[in-house]
Write a structure and sequence with these properties.
27 helices; elongated; 528 residues
Length: 528
């Protein structure tokens, strides 16, 4: 009987274990290990069912022997006992588990956890970098300026020079920054006096309403009094006058124009740099052609001829500007007078004549071309052509009179064409009257006598002066000389007597008239 009870207890323990496996149990992580019922160890439940405290240990020790003997003894028992055993076991869940197996428990729904703000500096359990603080452009500029200012005041010369260069860039790139007036003041105090003077002036013109403008004027005028010559002081002092223009570009234009016109060679380099900075900053300024012209003149005055030439060429790109014509002529002059590039000068003057045929400087350009042909290029025939062009274009101008005389002189002396020279002088008398025509006839008569030995033409030319211009002071002498040629060179005594008598009658009150009368009487006596 005892063994039977043990078997029943074992069966009940096994059933309890199966039921425990199919019931909802807490997750393994939350269940206590001691509450787990293992079906292979029935001793624990049997011990709980037995009222005796010592039964559990004995049954556990007898387990290896009881289990094999339980089956044969059950066969020897009577049938009612077996049926009773089955009836007691039948209500157990083993058959129910086979018919209606309990489904595995569904996983517990995940608890809804409201998101909490991530811990500072961490995201998803990982450290997160702090977002950098955002600075305004004004704060960035101010910080950069303080760095440069510190460098400009450093004891190390190399570092100080580098900081000053960067300060210059800072002022150019950020002229409207709050720190720019102070930056200009630092530059002016650290630099050599010439650029310092320009920087003080720039501060006055750029920031006339700032608190440092008055200080800048004082510093500038102090340098003018100490460093500038007495010739330049008046003009440079006027530049310190407060600008009247409200527009900043207009104010700074006044500054650069004043520097170009009044600084001479004293402030050449800083003044030229200031003009260039103006052009970079205000490329669309309406009078930039005037600014460029002033810069070119500044280069020229300081014998920077290559720089002047480049500036003139830059001006030539300003279509419609009145300074374009001036730049073309100045380019030709620069080639001729300073750079000694005479062929380039001729080409530049010819280009000017073609591009600006109505210009008042065309005559001057032609005259310069003729002189270059004669004096620098040894091309007298081209000079004659140029003089003829002048005569044609300006027949009544003083330039035409000079062209006639220069051409005749070239024909006589350089080209050895005295006959052409005489013709040129005679043509002159057809376009001009006294006194130019009388002088031209005398010159023609000299050529006829000395170069051509044409005494007959000489007599005609000198006689023409007395006939056409009887009131000129040279008339009596010219007619008297004509009579002498007839007497001495042509041996025409009759003709000589006649001309002597004409001189005596037409110019009776003159010295030549008296001499001519006496000479006529002697010739008549000699003839008679």
């Amino acid at each position: 009987m005892k063994r039977y009870l043990i078997l029943v207890a074992l069966s009940l323990a096994a059933a309890v274990a199966l039921r425990a496996q199919n019931t909802e149990l807490p997750p393994p992580s939350l269940a206590e290990p001691k509450a787990t019922v293992e079906p292979t160890t029935p001793s624990a439940p049997a011990a709980e069912a037995t009222p005796k405290t010592e039964a559990a240990p004995k049954s556990v020790e007898a387990k290896p022997e009881v289990k094999p003997e339980a089956k044969p003894e059950a066969k020897e028992e009577s049938k009612p006992k077996e049926e009773l055993k089955k009836e007691e076991i039948k209500p157990e869940p083993r058959p129910e588990l086979k018919v209606e197996p309990k489904p595995e428990p569904a996983p517990a729904p995940a608890p809804v956890v409201e998101p909490k703000p991530a811990a500072k500096g961490k995201t998803a359990g990982k450290p997160v970098k702090k977002a950098p603080k955002q600075f305004s452009p004004e704060e960035i500029l101010a910080s950069g300026f303080q760095t440069l200012k510190s460098g400009a005041e450093d004891q190390n010369q190399e570092l100080r020079n580098a900081a000053l260069e960067d300060l210059r860039v800072f002022v150019q790139q950020h002229p409207d920054a709050e720190a720019s007036p102070e930056a200009l003041g630092i530059l002016a105090r650290q630099e050599e006096y010439r650029p310092a003077m320009v920087d003080w002036l720039h501060l006055v013109y750029e920031y006339p309403e700032s608190g440092v403008a008055l200080k800048a004027k004082s510093e500038y005028l102090d340098l003018v009094n100490k460093k500038m010559s007495s010739k330049l002081k008046p003009g440079l002092s006027l530049l310190a006058k407060s600008p009247e223009a409200e527009d900043k570009a207009e104010r700074l234009a006044q500054l650069v124009l004043g520097l170009a016109e009044k600084s001479g060679d004293a402030l050449y380099e800083p003044a030229a740099a200031e003009i260039r900075r103006f052009q970079v900053r205000f490329p669309d300024y309406k009078d930039n052609d005037r600014i460029l012209w002033s810069l070119a003149q500044l280069h020229l005055a300081n014998e920077k001829y290559a720089a002047a030439l480049m500036t003139y060429r830059e001006l030539l790109s300003y279509q419609g500007s009145s300074y374009r014509e001036k730049a073309q002529f100045a380019t030709a002059e620069l080639f001729s007078d300073k750079l000694k590039r005479y062929k380039d000068a001729v080409d530049a003057f010819q280009a000017f004549i073609e591009q600006y045929p109505e210009s008042a400087q065309v005559l001057d350009a032609l005259q310069r071309v003729a002189v270059l042909y004669v004096d620098r290029l040894d091309q007298a025939p081209l000079a004659v052509e140029t003089y003829e062009r002048i005569i044609k274009l300006f027949p009544k101008a003083e330039g035409a009179l000079k062209a006639f005389n220069f051409e005749a002189k070239l024909q006589r002396d350089r080209l050895k064409q005295p006959e052409e020279a005489v013709k040129t002088y005679v043509r002159l008398t057809e376009q001009f009257r006294y006194p130019q025509a009388a002088e031209a006839l005398m010159n023609a008569a000299d050529v006829a006598r000395r170069d051509l030995k044409d005494y007959k033409r000489e007599v005609e030319l000198r006689s023409k002066i007395a006939v056409d211009f009887p009131l000129v002071k040279e008339a009596p002498e010219q007619l008297y000389q004509a009579a002498q040629v007839l007497e001495d060179d042509l041996k025409d005594l009759d003709g000589a007597v006649k001309l002597y008598q004409d001189v005596a009658s037409k110019f009776a009150g003159s010295k030549q008239g008296k001499k001519a009368g006496e000479r006529a009487s002697k010739l008549l006596q000699k003839k008679g």
